Each structure stands twice: as C-alpha cells, then as structure tokens.
C-alpha cells in the first residue's frame, strides 16, 4: 500500500466526512461509472450540489472524471470511483502528521 502524506490524508478524510459523498462513492462502486445527470437522479440530489461533492471527491483522488460525447453530440461528464485503500492506524497517522504542510494555526 503506497504511503499517503498528511495533506493527502486530510483531503481524503475531509472528502469522506459527508453522507452525500459516501453515497456517491457507494453508488459509483456498485454501479460503475455514471454521468452527472443520471447520478443526480439516482441519488435524489440536484446536479449543482452533486457537482460540488464530486469536485471534492475528485480533488481527494477518490473519483475520476472523463468528458465524452454521446451519440447525439451532447457532452457528458462521466465519473467513476478510483481504486484506493487507506489504512488508518496510529502509525500511519503519525507518519502522515510528520509530512503535513497545512498549518491549522495560520
């Protein structure tokens, strides 16, 4: 398992600390890739709200996106869950903390 630095760990934990984002990861993991409009309908949330959550998940490296053209020429932004594994142990947290560049006191 690759080492995750402190900033990456914070981004991942922050991204997963929201019920909508957990549901998005679950939906993409179970159903495979999906485009924004369909995923919004499946989850029962608005597209703008979904897009904000997807941006946070993508920034953390938990989902990936790819813009594709449909048969009728519409641009569809497809998202899928990225392959990831995060081991949360006291040791991995201590190691990640040593590499933090984000200072909460500033």
TrEMBL record:
Domain of life: Bacteria
Keywords associated with the record: DNA-binding, Transcription, Transcription regulation
Pfam families: HTH_20
CDD domains cross-referenced by the UniProt entry: HTH_ARSR (cd00090)
Gene3D superfamilies the UniProt entry points to: Winged helix-like DNA-binding domain superfamily/Winged helix DNA-binding domain
InterPro entries reported in the protein's UniProt record: ArsR-like_HTH (IPR011991), HTH_ArsR_DNA-bd_dom (IPR001845), HTH_MetalResp_TranReg (IPR051081), WH-like_DNA-bd_sf (IPR036388), WH_DNA-bd_sf (IPR036390)
Every HTH arsR-type domain range: 1-96
Protein name according to UniProt: Helix-turn-helix transcriptional regulator
Biological classification of the source: Bacteria, Pseudomonadati, Pseudomonadota, Betaproteobacteria, Burkholderiales
């Amino acid at each position: 398992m690759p080492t995750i630095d402190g900033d990456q760990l914070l981004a991942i934990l922050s991204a997963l600390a929201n019920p909508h984002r957990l549901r998005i990861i679950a939906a993409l993991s179970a159903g495979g890739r999906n485009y924004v409009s369909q995923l919004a309908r499946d989850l029962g949330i608005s597209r703008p709200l979904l897009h904000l959550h997807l941006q946070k998940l993508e920034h953390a490296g938990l989902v990936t996106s790819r813009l594709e053209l449909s048969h009728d020429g519409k641009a569809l932004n497809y998202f899928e869950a990225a392959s990831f594994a995060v081991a949360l142990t006291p040791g991995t947290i201590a190691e990640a903390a040593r590499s933090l560049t984000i200072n909460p006191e500033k």
